[in-house]
Amino acid sequence: MLAQQLLNKNFTTDKSGVKTVELIGASFIADETLIFGSENAEYIQHELDWYLSQSLNVNDIPGKTPAIWNSVATPEGFINSNYGYLVLSKENGSQYENVLVELIRCPNSRRAVTIYTRPTMHTDWCVGGMSDFICTNTVQYLIRDEQLHAVVQMRSNDSIFGYKNDYAWQKYILDKLVADYNAWNHGYTAQPIVAGTITWQVGSLHVYSRHFNYIKDYIDTLEADLIPFGN
Catalytic residue numbers? Predict the structure, then answer.
C-alpha cells in the first residue's frame, strides 16, 4: 500500500528531484473512479472532449489548460499523449476499429489490443522541447462469459490526478466498445455483452510529496475507524 510506503519512509526521487512514494508492479481491479482526492467532473469532461477531438495540442483543451499539460508540451503546445488520437485516429493505425473488428471476428480472441506507446518514444518524448513519454503502454480487451474485460497496462501513473482522468477515459472506451459490439451484433445469434472488469496494472504507481497530505488523511481515517465506539 502507498500508505505503508509513506509510514515506512520508503521514498523514491523522481527525475525532477521530487520525493515520491511508489508501488512497483501494482495490479488491482479498478472499480473506483479515484484513489485519493476528489473528482473534478468538469475537467474530466474537458479532457475527454479534447481526447475525442484527437488534437495533439494542449491549447485545444476546453477551458484553462492545466499547468501539468503546459509543463510537458512544446512551447507551441504540442504533445504525444492525446489518447483519442492514439486509439481512434487512422494516422495511428485505427486501433479502436481494429479491436472492434477482432472482437466481432473472434469473440474469444486474445488479440484485441490497443497499443498506446511506440518504439520511437525513446526519442519522441523530448522532440521540440516537450517532456511527454506516453504513460499507457497497452489495453487488452477480452470477452468472457458475455462480459468485455479490459486490462490496462501502464508505464507510470500518478495516483492523485493521473489515475482518475485515465480511468474516465478507459471506462469511456470500454463502454463504447460494448455499445458498438452490441449494435453490430443486433439480430445475430451471439449474445449481447456487458462491461466487465477493468484490471489496472502499473509499472510505477506513485504519489508526489506535494500530495502526501492525501495519504495522511487516508491514514487518519483508518485510525479513527479503529477507535472503539464511545471512547
Answer: 135
